[in-house]
Amino acid sequence: MPHTEDLSDLLKQRLKKLQVLQKKGKTTFAYSFKDKQDIGSVTSKYFKLEASQEGEKAKIGGRIVAFRQHGKATFADVADSSGKIQLYFAADVLGKRYEELSELDIGDIAGFEGLVFKTRRGELSLKVEKYQLLTKSLRPLPEKWHGLKDVETRFRQRYLDLIANPRAREIFSIREKALRTIRNFLNDKGFAEVDTPILQPLYGGATARPFVTHHNALDRDLYLRIAPELYLKRLLIGNMEKVFELGRNFRNEGLSIKHNPEFTMLEVYQAYADYNDMMDLTEKLIKEMVNVASGSLKITYQDKEIDFSKFEKISMIESIEKLGKVKVSFDMNVAELKKIAKNNEIKLQDFWGKGHIINAIFEKLVEPQLIQPTFVTDFPVEVSPLARTNQKDENLAERFELIVFAREVANAFSELTNPIEQRKRFEEQIKTEARDEVPQVIDEDFIKALEYGMPPAGGLGVGIDRLLMILTDSYSIKEVILFPHLRTFE
RNA sequence: GGGCCAUUAGCUAAACCCGGCAGAGCAGCGGACUCUUAAUCCGAAGGUUACAGGUUCCAUUCCUGUAUGGCCUACCA
Fold first, then answer.
1. Share above pLDDT 70 across residues of chain A, in percent, rounded to a whole number
2. Strand (E) positions, A341-398?
3. DSSP-derived secondary structure letter, A117
4. Which residues make beta-bridge pairs with A300?
5. Complex prediction ipTM
6. Closest listed residue to residue A48, CA positions, set A112, A116, A115
7. How far apart are CA A484 and CA A71, in angstroms?
């Protein structure tokens, strides 16, 4: 039991009430409640009843969220995960048990049996014949009308957000549907869901700082994965032709409106396919997710209409000329490209070559303009260390990103399968991008695996949280993650 | 990491500019009421104004610091 001195009066009252009930031998924390019907199935079965008409008996349970007392009649609202229904307690039905109604409070979890009927005003209700406290609630719920608004409390005590705010429930229901859609979609197409290590002896597949942890028995450091990519490719080498992983990545970087240190990522790999196949797959998958989430391919995000019925396609260099209004090409020398970047207030790093500079120009001048779903293709090889070189231009990679509302939603490429070139790319990357904090090491075991032969393959990554932000019109990533990262304190 | 803003009762919030007894609604408590649904009506409560300092006769209000959160920015394919 919590210490009494720093408790609010409300909590003290409830604790006292609990003790009184327990002294009387009443159940205050029940073990179970069998044969409970979903409120949602009761309401959908009887919604057609006429006012004052009766249905059949039902047994329901849930959290009491409101009371309206009228002397010898009392109304209450009870909610479970499937819905909400009104309860009607009448003194002439309940007799002595009516007098004992005060053992129930708002917030309690309780079970009810009685006759389903519609009131004179047409509200579907349960005329309670038996009721039973299942769990006594000791703390007051947030306000019934305004709900819970304090952002910090909403995220720290998400359960209160879910109890009080219907919108929170909707968002996480959409999230659940979206995840199910991904699994069904890929299962139907013959992809196998796999689980690869989250604790990795080396990290790779992206550039980001990792979280470091320690295995005591082996006495060695391990990293929480920043991406599953290199393990999934090992599966392609192991003759698993179509695999996907839907899981958490961890990146030890700053927090923002679109960054949480752990986030959900979908990665899909298909042997004998290339980035054009992945583009096709991406478009179909995203369309299905949008449709499932909103029932339409046109949605509104932050007051802008986004139309998922058609996906634009443009190459990076083309987009810079068309939307960025500057001409860039790999025929220019580095000095010329740096000048363009400088003119547009783009910060450059010393080690950057043409590819990085062009990519930076794209991100600054073009990306913010890409609101409608757009595949941007043909990224510079220099910023695509795991992608295969474009057959027509060795400066470019067979890679695309799907941009929606200026955000990268998906990233895919024809996978680099040549172990000799892969080693070169890694070496290049380490030379130029060496980070001070954590050493970058080549994953020799991955190179070794490639040396056994990886089939040609297309790979795709989708940032699920960012996509869900768009699907649920959420401004912050915290809105779509059940327990977003917040500083903890005593 | 840097900048701006916020923190008042369990919840939603007023007063803060321009210093003078912190005012409500909901929830809770007592009472009336047998079809209400943000029920209604009557009554009595509930506050270390995030925390620690400072200025002042007087601080929720002005100043400084700390904590937490939000937004912007930086880092982050």
1. 96
2. 374-377
3. E
4. A305
5. 0.92
6. A116
7. 45
Helix (H) / strand (E) containing A299: strand A298-301
- Nucleotide with C1' nearest the A164 CA: B11
Contacts of A76 (CB under 8 A, 6+ apart): A64, A66, A67, A68, A86, A87, A89, A104
Task: Find and list the nucleotides of strand B having atoms within 7 Å of a protein beta carbon.
Answer: 1, 9-13, 25-30, 32-40, 46, 67-77
Candidates A233, A124, A214; CA nearest to A451 is A233
Q: Which amino acid is at A75?
A: F
The 3 state secondary structure assigned to A32-86 is CCCCCECHHHHHHHHCCCCCCCEEEEEEEEEEEEEEEEECCEEEEEEEECCEEEE
Relative orientation angle of helices A444-451 and A419-433, to the nearest 10 degrees: 160
* Residue A465 pLDDT level (bands cut at 50, 70, 90): very high
User: What is the structure's pLDDT at A434?
Assistant: 53
Q: Closest nt to A66 (CA→C1')?
A: B37
Calculate the alpha carbon distances from A367 to A162, A329, A376 in Å.
35, 18, 9
| Structure confidence at residue A439 (pLDDT) | 58
**Alpha carbon distances (Å) from A113 to A36, A53, A301, A376, A475:** 9, 18, 44, 59, 43
Residue A146 in tokens: 């305004």
Reading the block at residue A164, the tokens are 């009080």
Q: How far is the CA of A485 from the C1' of B19 (A)?
A: 40
pTM equals 0.93
CA separation (Å) from A64 to A30, A134, A165, A480? 16, 11, 15, 26
Q: How far is the CA of A152 from the C1' of B6 (A)?
A: 12
Which DSSP string do the residues of A205-232 spell out, in sequence order?
A: SS-SPPPEEEETTTTEEEEE-S-SHHHH
